[in-house]
Amino acid sequence: xxxxxxxxxxxxxxxxxxxxxxxxxxxEKAGLQVVACKMVNLSKDKAEGFYxxxxxxxxxxxxxxxxxxxxxxxxxLEGDNAIAKNRELMGATDPKKAEAGTIRADFATSIDANxxxxxxxxxxxxxxxxxxFSDEEICPRG
Length: 142
Ligand code: RTP
Ligand code: MG
Known about the structure:
Elements: E1 3-10, H1 12-16, H2 20-29, E2 33-40, H3 44-50, H4 60-67, E3 72-80, H5 82-90, H6 103-107, E4 116-118, H7 122-132
The structure holds ribavirin triphosphate and magnesium ion.
């Protein structure tokens, strides 16, 4: 299977719950490696730019407010089939619909405060990784 990179964000609700370690542990146990990682407070501009594809959606302002409400942990995950594997580990956007044992089923509160973000396709993964990390900040272990 193809080695891929994907962008993961542990959102403010999960950081506030002290669930950072539990969530990263799930990625590692599933065979994904953390090859870049930082904790940041997103500015309104940075959050709006990140979710620009949703700018016309009714939930956009709430989404940006939520993503700027506290620190987030932004990571690059690398591994076989990393984009789909991360989405599988995350579970459905709405935690009520997320399969048991997924990150969102276990840690999310609502469709807004849903614990994690993961890139949804190779193109978005490439764009999102570059939105947060320079090449020098990514540390593949080979
Ligand atoms: P994400 O981008 O955060 O990984 O989530 P996703 O792909 O599962 O969902 P997406 O459709 O890209 O939506 C981005 C985020 O917007 C919020 N949302 N709220 N109230 C609503 O109907 C609604 N729909 C989406 C969620 O926080 C979602 O993660
Ligand atoms: Mg999305």
